[in-house]
Specification:
The chain is mainly α. The protein has eleven helices and no strands. α1 (10-28) crosses α7, α5 runs parallel beside α8 and α8 (120-147) packs across α9 (156-176). The longest helix has 28 residues, at 120-147.
Length: 230
């Protein structure tokens, strides 16, 4: 005698909806995906979706939050910036962590790009809730190194945007725009190069005159630097 399939708990049903919504939103965008389509993929009624999420927009936001919670980027960044070592080693480790995570899963990037193009409320909400705090953590690190005389005086938030912008844009080029089909670059190579470029624009003049451009604050562990290359 056949037994009826076990009913999912409310928490499990919510996770099921989020999983199907993530797959569709990340590939079809906010406007290109309907809650009816999500319900069909999940094998449930559309009304059941709205028992768990007040609106399509709240479902999309829940998908973004779930992706953020799974990766804990803010906590990871805070931990990376507290590691003892040279600026190059610290920032290189941060860059590698970002690039490795994004290479494994580009869904969050897709979700955010779609939200920026299709639903500005969601992208603005994401910026206020998450992005501004990422910039803030790195800006605090930059401001501290500036007070210590290592970095030259610049707007720390703009400097943080410049650093993270290089890393994230490279990830988009390779993973979303198909760059890796034409040029395969290791995460380590990219991180070292971009950090070196950024640091050479940030180091204060006394550090340059004293020959400490990368020897004291920027050398990667076990690596001798040559002019113009790694």
């Amino acid at each position: 005698m056949a037994t009826a399939p076990a009913r999912l708990t409310a928490a499990d049903r919510r996770e099921q909806i989020l999983m199907q919504a993530t797959n569709l939103f990340a590939r079809q965008g906010y406007k290109g995906t309907t809650t009816k389509e999500i319900a069909l993929r999940a094998g449930i009624t559309e009304a059941l979706i709205f028992r768990h999420f007040a609106s399509k927009e709240e479902l999309y936001w829940a998908v973004i939050e779930a992706k953020i919670d799974a990766n804990s980027p803010k906590e990871r960044m805070r931990a990376r910036l507290r590691v003892k070592g040279s600026d190059a080693a610290i920032l290189g480790g941060l860059a590698e962590d970002i690039l490795e995570r994004r290479a494994k899963d580009q869904d969050l990037s897709r979700l955010l790009l779609y939200s920026a193009l299709e639903n500005h409320r969601l992208s603005q909400r994401f910026f206020r809730a998450f992005v501004s705090s990422y910039y803030g953590l790195l800006a605090e690190y930059i401001a501290r190194r500036t007070r210590e005389g290592v970095f030259r005086p610049v707007d720390p938030t703009l400097a943080a945007r410049a650093f993270l912008g290089m890393i994230i844009y490279h990830s988009w080029v390779q993973e979303l725009f198909g760059g890796k089909r034409y040029q395969r670059l290791s995460v380590q190579q990219v991180s070292r190069t971009l950090v070196d470029v950024w640091l050479k624009g940030m180091l204060a003049e006394p550090a340059r005159r004293n020959g400490n451009r990368l020897s004291t604050h920027g050398r990667f562990p076990g690596q001798e630097l040559k002019r113009g290359r790694f």
